[in-house]
Amino acid sequence: MELPPLRWPRPGNILVKTGHRLVWFMREAIPYFFLGCLILFVLEQLGLLNGLRDIQRPVVVSFLACRRRARMSS
């Protein structure tokens, strides 16, 4: 059984394929990014973000062993 000869990829082909994958990733990621920003904005405006932070504080401080900051900005 013969194998075809191995060749180095052409730089232009690499750039084109990288560009297509970058566009695909942006089309997938940008809507989720904006959705996350919208959810955080709404939670902040309703005053629920501080409550959510307070609920998660015991888990973050004790279980994950993160140090507690002296003061959180509000």
Overview of the structural elements:
There is one protein chain. Helix content is 70%, strand content 0%. It is mainly α. The longest helix is centred in the middle third of the chain and has 36 residues, at 11-46. The radius of gyration is 23 Å and the shape is elongated. The mean pLDDT is 88.
Q: Key features?
A:
74 residues, 70% helix, elongated, mainly alpha
Overall 3D geometry? elongated
Structural class assignment: mainly alpha
Fraction in helix: over 70%
Fraction in beta strands: under 5%
DSSP, total strands: 0
Radius of gyration, in Å, reads 23 Å
By DSSP (H or I, 4+ residues per run), the number of helices equals 2
Report the biggest beta sheet as strand number plus sense, adding barrel if it closes: none
The rounded distance between the terminal residues' Cα atoms is: 70 Å
Unreliable runs, pLDDT <50, ≥5 residues?
Answer: none
Mean pLDDT: 88
In short:
The chain has 74 residues and is mainly α.
How is the topology of this model organized?
Layout (H helix, E strand, L loop, with lengths): L10 H36 L1 H16 L11
